Amino acid sequence: MENRMIVRVPGDKSISQRALILATLAEGESRLRGVLPSADPRSTAAALRALGADIPPLPADGAEIRVQGRGLGGLTPPEAPLDLGNSGTGTRLLLGVLAAQSFSSVVDGDDSLRSRPMARVTDPLGAMGARFEWLGAHGRLPLRVLGGPIGGIEYDLPVASAQVKSALLLAGVAGRVPVGLTEPGVSRDHTERMLRGCGVSVITHVRDDAGRRVELRDPPTRLTPLDIDVPGDLSSAAFVLLAGLLGVAPSGVTVEGVGLNPTRNGVLPLFERMGARLEVEPAGEAAGEPVGRITARPGPLRSIAVDESDVTLAVDEIPSVAIAAVRAPGRTRIRGARELRVKETDRIRALVVNLRALGVEVEEVDDGLDVVGTDAPLSGTVDPFDDHRIAMVFGVLGAQPGNAIEVLDPGCVEVSFPGFWSLLQELRDG
Ligand SMILES: O=C(O)C1=C[C@@H](OP(=O)(O)O)[C@@H](O)[C@H](O)C1
Ligand SMILES: C=C(OP(=O)(O)O)C(=O)O
């Protein structure tokens, strides 16, 4: 009989942070189960508490927390700069909320977050009438948000970005003004789904050119509270599935209770195009999101070509695809992935530098990389450059039988996936 492991991954990071923000803005008590207890949601929760939110500590086991909402006008001025740590999502979504408050606030983060572009959010918020002061380099944190009344906006996003889209929708909600957006591609729609769960009408149209239009026509006067189970994080599950495909878990692995949102699950068709033995079994909904089980079994992989439309649906999983490509004979070409250069680190560069250090043939291009598959055993030391996802993909590659890879700074996985290393060990032990 097949001795396949069945595991769960912690709650979705994107959904957890949105739930904390919307529960704070709602009227009444929200009940949130399965909130991810990792560094990023903790930073977002701490920033919200500094704005007057009543959020208990995030329990390590994802047990239910109850959040007493402050209502749309109920946030209070923070006494100190808000430290969003490493979280791009927490920062950009909160900038939308803060832009419409009647007080000023300062937003800051760690060195990684200070290096990431913020004008993609402050430019359109500025067009709504919001005012900002850069306290360091232009376009980077730290940043002062001079809150005040804002107007509505009609905006074409230059890149498909759920963080930009969400910041503008939240500004519309907090400032009670209409927002109409078009996106050049599809980005994750968790904010739209969760706002609907709070009783807000958000209209989405899929356009002929595959882009999207999102409208908040009737800004709400109040948000109803949430009562949700946060699905398992598909981005975390991707590392477990990669371990299944690469034979780290010799009989394969099943991840249960994981989110299957179609605007987010593009890694699954990419793995399938590589010949991966995947089985996806939908099993209902949680938090307004489709959820289910995914099984990955080891088997031969083949090289593929990845383009920009693939990347937007799998933006955080491209490192996993690049690592799968290491074991796919031939040349895998990844293009249209420029956005990876502005994540927690420059992920294209980090992949190229570290794969090269292990002896894998790679080529770096402006918007992506080529990876040439090999069956050689791989050994060496990897620097994740303080990026949780880079640490985890090389952790999985290192766990493949025959490889010996040391990941420096393994603790950086705490940003999104507490328990990653012990789960990886369990998969190896079968
Ligand atoms: O909205 C979100 O929760 C996220 C959106 C994506 O970023 P962009 O909006 O910059 O594409 C993604 O990379 C990030 O991990 C989470
Ligand atoms: C890019 C990521 O997160 P954020 O932008 O929220 O820092 C990520 O988790 O891969």
UniProtKB/TrEMBL annotation:
Q: Mind listing the UniProt keywords for this protein, alphabetically? A: Amino-acid biosynthesis, Aromatic amino acid biosynthesis, Cytoplasm, Transferase
Q: Which Gene3D superfamilies match?
A: Enolpyruvate transferase domain
List of catalytic residues: 316
Pathway in which this enzyme or protein is active: Metabolic intermediate biosynthesis; chorismate biosynthesis; chorismate from D-erythrose 4-phosphate and phosphoenolpyruvate: step 6/7
**Example GO molecular function term?**
3-phosphoshikimate 1-carboxyvinyltransferase activity
Q: Which domain of life is it from?
A: Bacteria
* Pfam family name, one: EPSP_synthase
Q: Which residues does 3-phosphoshikimate bind? A: 13-14, 18, 161, 163, 316, 343
Answer yes or no on keyword Amino-acid biosynthesis. yes
Q: Which reaction does it catalyse?
A: 3-phosphoshikimate + phosphoenolpyruvate = 5-O-(1-carboxyvinyl)-3-phosphoshikimate + phosphate
Enzyme kind, highest EC tier: transferase
Q: What family is it from? A: Belongs to the EPSP synthase family.
Q: Which PANTHER family match?
A: AROM/DEHYDROQUINATE SYNTHASE (PTHR21090), PENTAFUNCTIONAL AROM POLYPEPTIDE (PTHR21090:SF5)
Annotated protein name in UniProt: 3-phosphoshikimate 1-carboxyvinyltransferase
Species assigned in the record = Gaopeijia maritima
Identify the taxonomic lineage of the organism of origin: Bacteria, Pseudomonadati, Gemmatimonadota, Longimicrobiia, Gaopeijiales
